C-alpha cells in the first residue's frame, strides 16, 4: 500500500514537472513566511529560510504542545 502511494506521488510529480514542483514550494513558502511576519511571529531561521519547512517560535503564553482533534 505504501509503495502504491509513493508511485502515485511520483507520477503526480512527473506530470507537474519537477521544476514546477520547486516553484510551487517556493511560492507557498514565501506566502507562509509573509503570513508569519504579518502575524508578528518570530521565524526560527529568518536568515536562512527553507522552502521545505517554516519553523516559528511559539509566543509566550501560548501552549505549543496542545494536541487538537
Description:
By secondary structure, the chain is mostly helical. The chain contains two helices and no strands. The two termini are 26 Å apart.
Mean pLDDT: 93
What would the principal axes of the Cα set say about the shape? Answer: flat
What percentage of amino acids are in beta strands?
under 5%
Which spans of ≥5 residues are poorly predicted at pLDDT below 50? none
The radius of gyration over CA amounts to 16 Å
The largest pleated sheet is described as:
none
Q: Spell out the helices and strands N to C.
A: HH
Summing up helix and strand content along with how strands pair, one would put the structural category as mainly alpha
List the helices and strands and how they pair.
Elements: H1 2-16, H2 18-38
Amino acid at each position: 500500500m505504501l509503495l502504491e502511494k509513493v508511485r502515485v506521488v511520483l507520477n503526480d510529480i512527473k506530470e507537474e514537472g519537477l521544476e514546477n514542483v520547486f516553484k510551487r514550494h517556493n511560492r507557498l513558502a514565501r506566502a507562509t513566511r509573509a503570513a508569519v511576519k504579518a502575524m508578528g511571529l518570530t521565524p526560527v531561521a529568518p536568515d536562512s529560510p527553507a522552502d521545505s519547512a517554516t519553523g516559528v517560535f511559539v509566543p509566550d503564553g501560548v501552549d505549543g504542545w496542545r494536541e487538537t482533534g
